[in-house]
Write a structure and sequence with these properties.
7-stranded mixed beta sheet, two-stranded antiparallel ribbon, alpha+beta, 9 strands, globular, about 160 residues, OB fold (Dihydrolipoamide Acetyltransferase, E2P)
Length: about 160
């Protein structure tokens, strides 16, 4: 079953390449997702590096991730592949408020509770985001980068290895 998912993911990613005359875009088209066989998830560092190369642009792609932590802010739901969202290996799946509401209606529970500690297949827009530190309510000159995968529909996130009801 996992080999089938891996083959489908590679085929999906191969079809997601954007066409452009720039060298960066040409290099991206030849890359495919690497799957960690032990954890049966997508290599998050490869995605982080891809996002860094194309920064500030985004790239439509997909991947299989294990959700280790969740959060929310102003209606946005965040599914994290690491326990610490600031970890450079982390990919944050960002679910906008309207999509989170639709998802909650369909699965009958919060997206945070539904996806926590589960493997998911996600399709979305991969982008690197600059996050500024603040002190005493004011932005400092220090920042770090997060890698986000933004989903457009609740149907862009599916459980892997389980049947959803």
């Amino acid at each position: 079953m996992m080999k089938l998912v891996t083959v489908l993911l590679v085929l999906f990613l191969a079809g997601c390449g954007s066409t452009s005359s720039s060298n960066k875009s040409s290099e991206l088209q030849s890359q495919t997702a690497q799957v960690d066989e032990q954890n049966q998830t997508t290599d998050t560092m490869a995605y982080r590096n891809l996002a860094a190369v194309i920064y500030p642009k985004s790239f439509e792609t997909g991947g299989i991730f294990k959700v280790k932590a969740t959060g929310n802010k102003e209606g946005h739901v965040f599914l994290n592949t690491q326990y610490d969202y600031r970890d450079p290996r982390n990919i944050t799946i960002v679910i906008p408020p309207e999509v989170a509401s639709e998802l909650e209606e369909n699965v009958k529970m919060s997206p945070e509770a539904y996806f926590l500690k589960k493997r998911i297949l996600v399709k979305g827009s991969l982008v690197q985001v600059k996050v500024w530190f603040s002190a005493n309510g004011k932005r400092t000159n220090k920042y770090y980068y997060q890698t986000h995968m933004r989903v457009a529909s609740w149907k862009d996130i599916n459980l892997v290895g389980e049947t959803s009801s």
